[in-house]
Design a protein that fits this description.
Strand content: 5-15%
Bound molecules: NADP nicotinamide-adenine-dinucleotide phosphate
Distance between the termini: 34 Å
Number of strands: 10
Largest sheet: 8 strands, parallel, barrel
Helix content: 40-55%
Order of helices and strands: EEEHEHEHEHEHEHEHHHEHHH
Radius of gyration: 19 Å
Length: 335
């Protein structure tokens, strides 16, 4: 059975695998409702309790699908969602971390999820146009109202984490308990500053894209991708085309090869090794897996019980560690 660990400086216990639901209901590169429901059932049946969605995933359909699938077992689940991005309107007050937008976003999420509370409400991004005091006071009010139990942030830099926690402390408000950043063997830059800051400020870390969007599964080559994959379906100018251009580099394919060597030695898969590597990092609380099929989910679940030995960790670190930078040097030498 999976282990449950406290999320940051809180009493909330979460599984080390979190189910990401960005694919659910997405007609272009995701899965339909019956498949999404099977993925949720199997994920929970395997003993996990943590599900992550957002107001904008599949235009709100992800929250609706999750809400219907968990309705009969709501209290067994740690349900996380996010606000910031516009979901319904397009006006100046329909995005960001203002009181207006977050309040409307939370109400929309609760409606689509069919629940009267979420366990973890996260702001999806930093908003440079809203005073941090307004954002933290709004999140604090959500907690006091009972509609939200814990609060977190996503895609914040180190200085922004400090600003948020200090604003909460100054005003006697609820602190953040979690950060949701991108992190994998191919995107490690948060190690320099963000992860140590999150730890110092009591934030659990829930990492997204532990497979680099699927690149680390080993199924892509530099020239081509399976036609049913998100990188195989890219349309000019869409997010996956941009990601493909950023990710499909010689260096990243060397990392994929190193993952393959470890997977062969341990008689497991690329996916198991890549997700297990994120979980082996002490700063990481949970990895958000994002399966599109039940078969992919099964493969991702293997990471939960896969112990990477010291040789594997050393080889993967050597293959994926970036060039030494000045900030990296300071972080390594002085913590
Ligand atoms: N906070 C944020 O800003 C943010 C941003 C992005 C994601 N997220 C969260 O993180 C979750 C995971 O992100 P992600 O989907 O990018 O994660 P990922 O684990 O890096 O990539 C998942 C994708 O890889 C492919 N895949 C997964 N397992 C596979 C397997 N065993 N064999 C072959 N292919 C496999 C599938 O795509 P194909 O089959 O299409 O190749 C799948 O959709 C999301 O659902 C969301 O909850 C958060």
């Amino acid at each position: 059975m999976p282990d449950f660990v406290p999320l940051g400086r809180s009493g909330l216990k979460v599984s080390s695998l979190c189910l990401g639901t960005m694919n659910f209901g997405n007609e272009n590169w995701g899965c339909d409702e019956p498949t999404s429901a099977k993925i949720i059932d199997r994920f929970l049946e395997a003993g996990n309790n943590f599900i992550d969605t957002a107001n904008v995933y599949a235009g709100g359909r992800s929250e609706e699908i999750v809400g219907r699938a968990i309705a009969a077992r709501r209290d067994e689940i740690v349900l996380a969602t996010k606000g910031f991005n516009p979901q319904e309107g397009t006006g100046p007050n329909d995005r960001g971390n203002s009181r207006v937008n977050l309040t409307r976003s939370l109400e929309g999420s609760l409606r689509r999820l069919g629940t009267d509370f979420v366990d973890l409400y996260q702001v999806h991004s930093w908003d440079p146009t809203t005073p941090i005091e307004e954002t933290m006071a709004t999140l604090d009010d959500f907690v006091r109202s009972g509609k939200v139990r814990y609060i977190g942030c996503s895609n914040w830099q180190a200085s922004q984490i400090v600003e948020g926690q200090w604003a909460a402390a100054r005003n006697g408000g609820t602190p953040l308990v979690s950060l949701q950043p991108q992190y994998s063997l191919i995107v490690r830059d948060i190690e320099i500053d963000v992860l140590p800051t999150a730890a110092r400020h009591g934030l659990g870390v829930i990492v997204w894209s532990p497979l680099g969007g699927g690149l680390l599964t080993g199924k892509h080559s530099k020239e081509s991708s399976p036609s049913d994959s998100r990188f195989g379906k890219v349309a000019s100018g869409d997010i996956w085309e941009l990601m493909r251009r950023a990710l499909f580099t010689d260096r990243n394919f060397e990392i994929v090869a190193a993952v393959g060597v470890v997977a062969d030695r341990l008689h497991t898969t690329h996916t198991g090794v890549a997700v297990a590597w994120t979980l082996a990092q002490s700063a990481v609380t949970s990895a958000i897996i994002g399966p599109r099929t039940v078969e992919q989910l099964e493969d991702n679940l293997t990471a939960g019980s896969l112990e990477l030995d010291a040789d594997a960790l050393k080889d993967l670190d050597r293959a994926s560690r970036g060039p030494l930078t000045y900030l990296g040097f300071l972080a390594r030498e002085r913590g």
